């Protein structure tokens, strides 16, 4: 019996001496159909998903993304205990969400009719025009503030495709869009076949926007924010994005 006690004790001491193990967990995020950055049927579920997934995998964790219309994607994070955050999002001041480090960039500008290109230097130059925006999208602080104050005329829809169609038929003069999204939709959305050759990106970009994951501002969200930020340091974000977009 004495030898058995010694063996058990030795095993216990050996177990205590082992380094702590980092166990793999699954993080759940929401997103939207916003190709080429995100989409359930896209390869690797889109360029932004590829980046975020690679960062979590670099930290030993698994990412699961559920796709919803944009407003619901945000609401699900607020109202459900399942999701730690949503993406891709532009940064904005918020008490409800905390943001990851940048997961890539997207060129934000306007789609316009090829037959009626618009020249502008500042947003004040766009006061004669009606600008299409997507419901609940964050654009730029200046543009969103001017629209909110009524200094710029706007028309709200629920998707980029709707805005492209409205520009092509002259119902709005411009619409805010990421140039990579426009390029993808022109080539792949059958609803835009009639509009594909009649619209183009305006020659002046609004801004090159960083893309983020917005995490719920609670203990779980902040935990995953920290894990993702560490993972992003371990991967080549630009290379993943560039390879995917190209």
Rough outline: globular
Task: Give Rg in angstroms.
Answer: 23 Å
Low-confidence stretches: 1-21
Mean pLDDT score: 91
Gap between N and C termini, in Å? Answer: 70 Å
Structural class: alpha/beta
- Beta-strand residue percentage: 15-25%
Count of individual beta strands: 11
- Helices and strands, in order, run as HEHEHEEEEHEHEHEEEHH
Q: Which percent range fits the helix content? A: 25-40%
Oligomer: single chain
Alpha plus pi helix count:
8
Largest sheet: 6 strands, mixed
Describe the structure.
With 246 residues, the chain is an alpha/beta fold. 36% of the residues lie in helices and 23% in strands. The chain has eight helices and eleven strands. The strands form two sheets. Strands 5, 6, 7, 8, 9 and 10 form a six-stranded mixed beta sheet that branches. The protein has a five-stranded mixed beta sheet with strand order 2-1-3-11-4, sandwiched between helices. The longest helix is centred in the first third of the chain and has 16 residues, at 2-17. It is globular, with a radius of gyration of 23 Å.
């Amino acid at each position: 019996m004495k030898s058995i006690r010694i063996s058990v004790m030795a095993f216990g001491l050996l177990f205590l001496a082992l380094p702590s193990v980092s166990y793999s967990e699954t993080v759940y995020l929401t997103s939207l159909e916003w190709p080429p950055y995100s989409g359930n049927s896209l390869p690797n579920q889109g360029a932004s998903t590829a980046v975020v997934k690679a960062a979590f995998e670099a930290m030993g964790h698994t990412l699961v993304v559920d796709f919803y219309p944009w407003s619901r994607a945000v609401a699900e994070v607020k109202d459900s205990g399942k999701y730690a955050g949503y993406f891709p999002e532009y940064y904005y001041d918020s008490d409800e969400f905390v943001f990851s480090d940048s997961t890539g960039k997207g060129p934000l500008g306007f789609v316009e009719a090829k037959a009626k290109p618009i020249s502008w230097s500042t947003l004040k130059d766009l006061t004669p025009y009606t600008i299409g925006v997507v419901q609940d999208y964050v654009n730029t602080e200046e543009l969103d503030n001017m629209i909110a104050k009524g200094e710029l005329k706007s028309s709200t829809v629920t998707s980029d495709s709707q805005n492209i169609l409205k520009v092509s038929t002259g119902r709005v003069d411009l619409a805010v869009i990421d140039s990579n999204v426009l390029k993808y939709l022109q080539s792949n959305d059958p609803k835009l076949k009639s509009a594909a050759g009649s619209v183009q990106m305006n020659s002046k970009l609004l801004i090159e926007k960083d893309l983020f994951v917005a995490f719920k501002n609670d203990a779980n969200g902040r935990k995953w924010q920290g894990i993702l930020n560490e993972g992003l340091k371990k991967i080549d974000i630009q290379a993943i994005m560039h390879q995917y977009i190209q």
